[in-house]
Amino acid sequence: MPHDRSALGTFLRSRRDRLTPAQAGIEAFPGARRVPGLRRDELAVAAGVSPDYYSRLEQGRQANVSTEVLDALARALRLDEVERAHLHDLAAPIARHRHATPRTIQLPDPGLLRLMQTLDHVPVLLLGHRGEVLARNVLLTEVLGSPLEPGSSFVRYMFQDPLSRERIVNWSDFASATVATMRRETGRHPHDRRLTALMDEIRATDSDVARWWEDLTVRDYASVTKRIQHPTAGPISFNIEIVCAPHEPDQRLIVYTTEPDSATARVLPILASWNTPSRP
Q1: Could you tell me if 131 and 253 are in contact, meaning their C-beta atoms sit under 8 angstroms apart?
Q2: pTM
Q3: Which CATH code fits 3-100?
Q4: CA 121 to each of CA 190, 258, 270: distance values in angstroms, whole numbers, following the listed order
Q5: CA torsion through residues 94, 202, 157, 165, sign
Q6: Tens digits of per-residue pLDDT, 199-231?
Q7: Identical fold, 3-100 and 110-273
Q8: What are phi and psi for residue 153, nearest 5 degrees?
């Protein structure tokens, strides 16, 4: 069974298991229930497809799935926008995925680099789709306490560098979001062996990652709050904002923003003065 069809069935089962008939807006079918959420036939009725067709789909025996059926399933399962996009990626033809497999080496987008250079007053990080560091400024390394050299892995920093757990006060929130983002990336690029190998390695060595991965939660890069305990500056806090270039959808500029006149905003110039400014 092709990898993406197996993943599609697993994702569909996980989403119907979390949804009760009442939440789906339908009457529960009579009889003893052996599943925590919707039955297959209940979901089929809610989505307007035959139970046999849906069973083939969930078991990976349905080669092609129309956009209309996927949208109907997404509505029935109450999927959000990111989950809906993930569902479509998992159901996409294998040929499309192979054609869309990204380059082995990503080069930082010049436009994003120029934008990065105008933001030296706040920490900034440019990431590729595997969580690879494409560029960063000096203030970012001062805040996180890691050099994060271009070519290194931000995912490895999060889960294999003990300093990340020490510095990031709300590490578990930020780390679980990182896992959900990487699961979304594997849906976009199921044939990217380097990405698959990275997540297999991290899952095998970190029980938190394994637990979050099995939850099948997906999310895109999103704005979150990150709280840092800096050894000298003390507690500082950032709102993380994401900038994407339309022609480079696999690159994300991560900007650590601050509230005007906040304690964090006042201390950042001091942290910046400890380092010689350098181009990313």
Answers
A1: no
A2: 0.84
A3: 1.10.260.40
A4: 37, 10, 10
A5: positive
A6: 999 999 999 999 999 999 998 876 778 999 999
A7: no
A8: -110, 120
